[in-house]
Amino acid sequence: MTEFLRELPKCEHHVHLEGTLEPSLLFQLAERNNITLPSNFPASVAACNERYNNFADLQDFLDHYYVGMSVLIKEDDFYDLAMEYFKRAHADGCVHSEVFFDPQGHVERGIPIHTVVSGFERACKDANEKLGTTNKLIMCLLRHLPAADGLQTIASAAPYYQAGVIHGLGLDSAEKPFPPELFTDCYKTLKDQFPHVNLTAHAGEEGDHTYVTNSLNKLNVTRIDHGVNSQHSDELMAHLAENQVMLSLCPMSNVKLQVVKDVSELPIRKFLDAGVPFSINSDDPAYFGGYILDNYIHVHTRFGFTPKEWTKVVLNGINGSWCDEHRKAELR
Ligand code: HPA
Ligand code: ZN
User: Fold this and answer.
1) Is the CB of 253 under 6 A from ligand 1?
2) For labeling, which of 47, 129, 219, 229 is most exposed (least CB within 10 Å)?
3) Which residues have a beta carbon within 5 Å of ligand 2, which is an ion?
4) What's the CA-to-centroid distance between 7 and ligand 2, angstroms?
């Protein structure tokens, strides 16, 4: 079955490049850049893996994730990080990736946005040329920072949207205390300036279903990241199915961040039966113990989808991707 799942033309829509920072690369970059990690940071790869098995919730993970990214300094670091992910995803049979990054997490440490985007852009190009995969960059705003900071970030990223280097906007970090409507201006400002930009937001991971509805209504997103709590509103479920709004689900992440105890508790069968499109993704694979194929395997062992059902899931992922129709036709 693993080979069947590997060979499916999988698209990944929910992976944070900073969340692909494997402990081995983290320690290598810390040494290369003379970074001293805080004394309470795990001291070895094994200690990291142990700590990563024990996140209490999203915030506990995020506290670690922001320290982890402090080893990324130079353009080559961002390139190496992204290229490692693209190679790993390719080995899993992932043919198209839409990847998040958090520029504010770097700019606030004094790293110019240009350094971040240039390294990631170069990796996207190389992955396309060397591996044949297609890739899109999605800039995320950190919702624990003020919207004014988000507006500044959008202004500084404008040249990259203009040049088609960045394709989308997302919203991540601590969800519950920072509801989507706080960022209405940010989303509107970017969309007014670049009408072709694609919009998404994390919603309904720890927040309830109103976070999903408000992301759709106030931010005008066309995709929802996570969205598991949509299951608690029949009206919302019907809306998602009718309008084919795709949820980018992250099963192993939901277990590691204590959203559910086991993947079997996720409403994946419910979404499939209700016609709510979803893709299956890794979120922060270096922290949550598995890349895209591991997530597919977890879903398969719990839900036992038939080959026909898997074909439907994969087709929904292709249809919900932000690549052009030509590429979609190639992938189908
Ligand atoms: N949720 C919110 N913010 C994040 C996540 C997540 O799972 N991963 C990285 N930033
Ligand atoms: Zn995420």
Assistant:
1) yes
2) 129
3) 283
4) 25
Structure tokens at 284: 């922060």
Q: Is 18 a catalytic residue?
A: no
Alpha helices in the chain (DSSP H): 2-7, 23-32, 45-52, 58-68, 75-91, 103-107, 113-131, 147-162, 184-193, 209-218, 234-243, 251-256, 268-274, 285-288, 292-303, 307-319, 325-331
ipTM of the prediction: 0.95
Ligand 1 in reach of 19 Cβ (< 6 A) = yes
Give me ligand 2 centre to Cα 259, in Å: 13
Half-sphere exposure of 92 (CA within 13 A, CB side): 24
Distance CA 159, CA 119 (A): 16
* Structure tokens given for 280: 């299956």
Domain boundaries, the chain: 2-323
Amino acid, single-letter form, for residue 1 = M
Report pLDDT digits (tens) over 250-305: 999 999 999 999 999 999 999 999 999 999 999 999 999 999 999 999 999 999 99
Q: Give pLDDT, residue 1.
A: 81
- Domain made up of 2-323: CATH architecture: Alpha-Beta Barrel (3.20)
